[in-house]
Design goal:
The chain has 533 residues and is of the alpha+beta class. Helices cover 28% and strands 22% of the residues. It folds into 4 domains: 31-82, 2-Layer Sandwich (Wheat Germ Agglutinin (Isolectin 2), domain 1), CATH 3.30.60; 99-148, Wheat Germ Agglutinin (Isolectin 2), domain 1 (2-Layer Sandwich), CATH 3.30.60; 158-314, Rossmann fold (3-Layer(aba) Sandwich); 323-510, Tumour Suppressor Smad4. The protein has helices at residues 2-30, 72-78, 143-147, 162-173, 205-216, 230-233, 253-268, 288-292, 305-314, 351-365, 373-390, 396-399, 458-465, 528-531; strands spanning 35-38, 57-60, 66-68, 100-102, 127-129, 135-136, 193-197, 222-224, 246-251, 277-282, 316-329, 339-343, 346-349, 400-404, 407-409, 416-420, 450-455, 472-477, 480-484, 489-493, 496-500, 503-517. Strands 12-11-22-19-14-15 form a 6-stranded antiparallel sheet. Strands 18-17-16-13-20-21 form a 6-stranded antiparallel sheet. Helix 10 crosses helix 11 (373-390). The chain is elongated and about 80 Å long. Residues 188-329 form the DAGKc domain. GO terms for molecular function: ATP binding; ATP-dependent diacylglycerol kinase activity; zinc ion binding. Residues 32-81, 97-150 form the Phorbol-ester/DAG-type domain.
């Protein structure tokens, strides 16, 4: 009898739990808050409704509201989230009041009135504005602060104010496009930023950044690229002043290339005056492009999000060459269209392309294993070591012909050829410079020139990476032509590999991309020329 009662009680508990979970999911789906459920907060948290310590509950990644599970429905009705656009306003407002949230203020924050530390008491206390991030003590909060205009704080030059979007929306309804008249409502040095995050990059760190950037900016400025394509996200640029927008791409070099392709589409649509400048938060495995642009070889959370936004504000605009890589299969000139790629980093044929091809094949079979940058590099190392023994790409010089600006190049005994557009290659190696003990022409990423080098094999690549050897410098050129005469060889463009049969590869200049260069994150003993790239 007791077993039956116990089983019945367990069944009732399971039913209640499933009903509760369905109710929570329904609230999340219908809510204007961006709720996330958690049963463990990283710091002591207190419910904004009942003021009790939260053991299990939810938080909004846009406004920072925290609530225990029983009070979720009540909190969702009572408290407004950040409004991306002001509603119900007559005329064109040029300001908005603070939006105060009580409790759970950041540690080490100071009261804007008395300048003393906030959030020191173990209870629900003190206020924080969800826009300017200013905090104020309960006892310092006066009526004038509740109605005072919000200044948007330190990042006012990056935030798109809700009243700006309201004004632009009204102008679009009236079919007016002179948006410049609305700009004076914003900061004098306004440079709105858009954040495009690949949540699948870097141990899924992009998911964390989405919430942190939504807290500091207008949520409409932050996009999850797993849910919306870059081309659609970038249409927000057409609502903003010409030549003023900055885009922060959170992801690897492949994500950056995806966004730059979408920007090229804007040029085709006649939206060239809205083209943004692009900064990078490196979350991928190689991150050679971000390293070249001064944003570092990889990000693991060591720099606060606030500092990242400061770096974006202070970064300098530069140009990056982008190249067209056309692969025409031998014997199919009139029957099959050539494959066309856009190159930002490098093209290669040989051992490094073989490592990338093996890596991608392994990742396709077991994607769950490749959730860490360290694991990814370990797999690359394994395949590189294997190729040192097998030498699958030997005698490449007998299988290919190379032309630089129409001039045939006599090739020494090689296993690989690499065509470089940027300074870094292979996850942080300055390939063109090698050991730096030989004279060589300077390499830049904005001069319309490609650097072409050869390698003797995987072991030679490893030697170059630790500065124990120099590459075989074959020359610089505006146009590169490579003819694969026989057999099948591994090739790659910016880390995207494939096995290629006899063909002709032609690399020509395509366009420039507007990038942002951060001068504070060099990871190598770079010379002065790299700073001016």
């Amino acid at each position: 009898m007791s077993r039956a009662l116990l089983g019945h009680a367990m069944l009732n508990t399971c039913v209640r739990r499933s009903r509760r979970q369905l109710l929570i999911r329904d609230i999340f789906r219908k809510s204007k808050h961006d709720w996330h459920y958690t049963d463990l907060f990283g710091s002591p948290s207190y419910c904004c409704v009942c003021a009790q310590h939260i053991l299990r509950g939810a938080f909004c990644s846009c406004c920072g509201l925290r609530v225990c599970e029983p009070c979720l429905k009540k909190a969702d009705r009572r408290f407004l989230c950040k409004e991306i656009m002001m509603r119900g306003t007559a005329g064109a407002p040029s300001s908005m009041p603070h939006h105060w949230i009580r409790g759970n203020v950041p540690l080490c924050s100071c009261c804007m009135v008395c300048k003393q530390q906030c959030g020191t008491q173990p209870k629900l206390c003190d206020y924080r504005c969800v826009w300017c991030q200013y905090t104020v003590h309960d006892e310092c909060m006066v009526d004038c602060l509740r109605t005072e205009d919000c200044t948007f704080g330190e990042f006012k030059d990056l935030i798109i104010p809700p009243y700006y979007l309201s004004a632009i929306n009204q102008m679009r309804k009236e079919k007016r496009t002179n948006y410049e008249k609305v700009v004076p409502y914003c900061s004098k040095h306004w440079m709105p930023v858009m954040v495009l995050a690949n949540t699948r990059s870097g141990n899924n760190m992009g998911e964390i950044f989405l919430g942190e950037f939504k807290m500091l900016l207008n949520p409409v400025q932050v996009f999850d690229l797993s849910k919306i394509a870059p081309a659609k996200a970038l249409q927000l640029c057409t609502w903003l002043p010409c030549n003023a927008v900055r885009v922060l791409v959170c992801g690897g070099d492949g994500t950056v290339g995806w966004v730059l392709d979408a920007i090229d589409e804007m040029k085709i649509k006649g939206q060239e005056r809205y083209i943004p400048q692009v900064a990078v938060l490196p979350l991928g495995t190689g991150n050679d492009l971000s390293n070249t642009l001064g944003w570092g070889a990889g990000y693991a959370g060591e720099v606060p999000v606030e500092q990242i936004l400061r770096n974006v504000m202070e970064a300098d605009g530069i140009k990056l060459d982008r190249w067209k890589v056309q692969v025409t299969n031998k014997g199919y000139y009139n029957l099959r269209k050539p494959k066309v790629f856009t190159m930002n980093n490098y093209f290669s044929v040989g051992p490094d392309a073989l490592m990338a091809l093996n890596f991608h094949a392994h990742r396709e079979k077991t994607p769950s294993l490749f959730s860490s940058r360290i694991i990814n590099k370990a797999v690359y190392f394994f395949y590189g070591t294997k190729d040192c023994l097998v030498q699958e790409c030997k005698d490449l010089n007998k299988k290919v012909e190379l032309e630089l600006d129409g001039e045939r190049i006599e090739l020494p005994n090689l296993e690989g050829i690499i065509v470089l557009n940027i300074g870094y290659w292979g996850g942080g190696c300055r390939l063109w410079e090698g050991m730096g003990d030989e004279p060589y022409p300077l390499a830049r990423h904005d001069d319309g020139l490609l650097e072409v080098v050869g390698v003797h094999g995987s072991f030679h690549c490893a030697q170059i990476q630790v500065k124990l050897a120099n590459p075989v410098r074959l020359g610089q050129a505006h146009t590169v032509r490579l003819i694969l005469k026989s057999s099948k060889m591994p090739m790659q463009v910016d880390g995207e590999p494939w096995a290629q049969g006899p063909c002709t590869v032609t690399i020509t200049h395509k366009t420039h991309a507007l990038m942002l260069y951060h001068s504070g994150e060099q990871t190598d003993d770079d010379d002065a020329s790299s700073l001016s790239e």
